[in-house]
Write a structure and sequence with these properties.
Two copies of one chain form a homodimer.
Chain A: E1 14-21, H1 23-26, H2 34-44, E2 47-55, H3 59-72, E3 75-79, H4 90-98, E4 102-104, H5 106-113, H6 123-127, E5 130-132, E6 136-138, E7 147-150, E8 153-156, H7 160-168, E9 181-187, H8 191-204, E10 209-218, E11 226-237, H9 240-256, E12 262-263
Helix pairs in contact in A: 2-7, 3-4, 8-9
Chain lengths: 265, 265
């Protein structure tokens, strides 16, 4: 088994996808950090992130991606596009994807209205209270404008601080499955020299996935001035005992190459 | 026009997608930085990144994503999964996606063989010389094992240092279109108060896209201790004169809110 995707398949596997909505990520101007945050958060709950997509602020693109992902995975988390400006079209796109209508949500209006002077509760701000019919609100303790949850889709803000606060409030809504435990061991070995031994470990340990992530660190500016290299091995299983045995086997493999294994976590 | 996607549509628009292959990104353990690097690199060449997908090390997932993306966009760039270990399956997946065979590539074998002692040119390392039939090699000045290029798909390593070196060698193979110019202006304004004015600017300036990206910075640990907030406006156009006019209009909009506009780049 060459991937973590099906590890623990005898147990319940709960999956998720993240859909990042935003031209600013696609332009390279902003680094998406929400996806890795959500990935780690899901992992703790026993949910496995199987796919990430980043699409532009274009309704047809959002609808197509959302419908593909929500049909395939247990949960879908979207980030971005729920602000007050003309380029915030996520709520409308979600309504279109589900084929439902969208309107001002009384509770959302009340929550948001409470924090503004009447003349500052602009049409643009009210627009953030437009929620697809039948959706439940997701609390936003930072700036009030809520996210929402409909079917297996959770719609959140793109600003990391707000997105993280929204996730906090969702913990009890997520039903995880078999939690994928992981361990990482590194060593100053050459990937091409241990690949055979690693493949043998993979063949020996069913129920464990072995990942291999080489690293290079270059000092100086010359084209061949690589000063350090090695491999971090990541071992995953739903079974702690198997994981411990597999980690010990990886340590032994590294020692067999004359290097010292280093636990990464 | 609420998106940069079609700005400059009267001119030639050249598009791209990035396909990131790797369990390590989906686990949240590793932050994908290759996508934003490729996005910026493409932007310089007049190519617009329209979609990013991250999929697991699973052949069926890679094939499905690659076939969807290569049919839709001018170029597709993949990163990851071309190393020597059992979990490196990208080359086989690309061959399967194109419905072609894959075999040891004489030139790749020669390039790689030249850097190893004969007993260190292991089967695992030779595996990295397996290239889909008809593909052209992409030079890897860092660690020799090449990437490859077939049709509109460019297959690169996942290690950022190697990926960046591979991209360097591809510049002459990419034919860009109308280059999307951009400018960014920030200000300590409330997004919900300027949204109306911004929407009016968007309506006025066809051929320009206006993006609005609020930021919050929190000092201290209290739940309501937001200490600074504001909005960065990103303006895009293929026409420098229009871009300059639009930027000046955004500056005036910020001043109209009693704040001082700050050019971000």
């Amino acid at each position: 088994m060459s991937t973590a995707e099906n590890i623990g398949a005898a147990e319940k596997i709960v999956t998720a996808a993240v859909l990042v909505i935003g031209d600013e990520i696609l332009s390279g101007r902003t680094q998406d950090t929400n996806s890795s945050y959500i990935a780690s958060w899901l992992g703790e709950l026993g949910v496995r992130l199987h796919e990430i997509r980043v699409v532009a602020d274009v309704q047809a693109d959002i609808v197509a991606a959302l419908n593909a992902l929500r049909a395939r995975y247990t949960y879908v988390f979207t980030t971005g596009g729920i602000g007050p400006t003309h380029d915030d079209i996520t709520a409308d796109a979600v309504a279109a994807a589900f084929g439902i209508s969208i309107d001002y949500h009384p509770q959302a209006l009340a929550i948001m209205g409470a924090q503004y002077k009447p003349d500052e509760f602009t049409e643009a701000r009210k627009r953030m209270a437009r929620i697809p019919d039948g959706a439940e609100l997701i609390d936003n303790p930072v700036s009030k404008a809520p996210g929402f949850h409909i079917g297996n889709v959770f719609v959140m803000a793109g600003i990391p601080m707000i997105m993280q606060a929204m996730l906090d409030s969702l913990r009890h809504k997520i039903r995880g499955g078999a939690k994928l435990l992981s361990a990482s061991v590194g060593g100053a070995v050459a990937e091409g020299l241990v690949a055979g031994a690693l493949g043998a470990l993979q063949a020996k340990f069913s129920g464990v996935s072995f990942g291999s992530y080489p690293f290079y660190r270059r000092a100086g500016t010359g084209s061949n001035s690589v000063s350090a290299y090695g491999v971090n091995f990541v071992i995953r299983s739903t079974d702690q005992k198997l994981l411990d045995e597999a980690r010990e086997a990886v340590r032994a493999m590294i020692r067999g190459e004359g290097a010292e294994p280093e636990d990464r976590d």
